[in-house]
Design brief:
The chain is α/β, with parallel strands linked by helices. The chain contains ten helices and 13 strands. It has an eleven-stranded parallel β-sheet with strand order 1-2-3-4-5-6-8-10-11-12-13. Helix 1 packs parallel to helix 2, helix 4 runs parallel beside helix 5 and helix 6 runs parallel beside helix 7. The chain is elongated, with a radius of gyration of 23 Å.
Length: 329
Amino acid sequence: MSSFNVIPSFRIRVARTHQGHGVNVIMSLPRLQTLRCDQLNKAAITFVAWHPSLTELDISIPSAHQYDFLQSSHPTLPRIPPFSQIKIFRMNSVHLAAITAFIQAVQPSPSHLCIKARREPALQSVQEFFNTLSNQRMHESMQSLRVQSYSSHIRLPVAPIDIDTIKPLLRFSKLQELHLLMVNSFDFSDKDLTTMGASWPCLEVISLNNGDARAMPSAITLRGLILLVNKCSHLRSARLAIDANALEGIEEFPASMTGANDLQCLVFADTTIEDPRAVALIVSLAFPKVEKILVGALWRHVPSDEPQWSKVNEYLEVFRLFRVGRWRI
């Protein structure tokens, strides 16, 4: 194995009865930078926690396991917190609560955190998870957060996630990407989007259920998106469920409400549009880099004879050609 000690990336899947061999493999790779592995026993995870070169870790967290890294420390180990060198941390588990407990024990400070829970968590578990993140050192370093929870048996209705639920995340002033892929719907208003934008001035990507709509109508409107971009001028991708028929409160020249911005990718829920031309004009003026609006899913049928986002995109193309001087009558 010594001939492979320069391997920078490694994926290991070891049965519990052979985890001792897994430790030996990991220890024989002193220059390892990326590790993807299944559940590790105490000895293995202790070594990984203080691995000298590891910066990216993808690990499965068991639901019934206690980690005490204070007792696991050894005089030969570096005098640094466990996992403090991990910059990209991916954790998956059956239950979100297990990941919450692990983070409480570890107190990592990655710049990128990706969480996947294979069972639908209760809203209280989601709240506890966000509180745990806020109470750790993460708010000083977090740049990207992705939380995914799903269930093979979706039970509706599910309690929505509102601004109070994610309030702990508003401390993450360096946040650049937020991906929340939940069974829950999101109960956010235009005012809430403004609060998020003021808290995350560096935000570049926001994805709430990939733009899918879990419940309708959404309280977010195009005005809310404009206000968000006004606070986050580097925002380049937004995936949201919005009510595009509520056009009140948008100025005649919405570009004055946003100014120069980088928004290029828009994904909205596939809803009925009452005035495709008005929606396209607002998007074209406020977000000139958006050439086409993609659509997510909607959990209800939309009559096929109703104008939808395809018509909006037709107008967007017309306005784009006018803007670049290529339209011919």
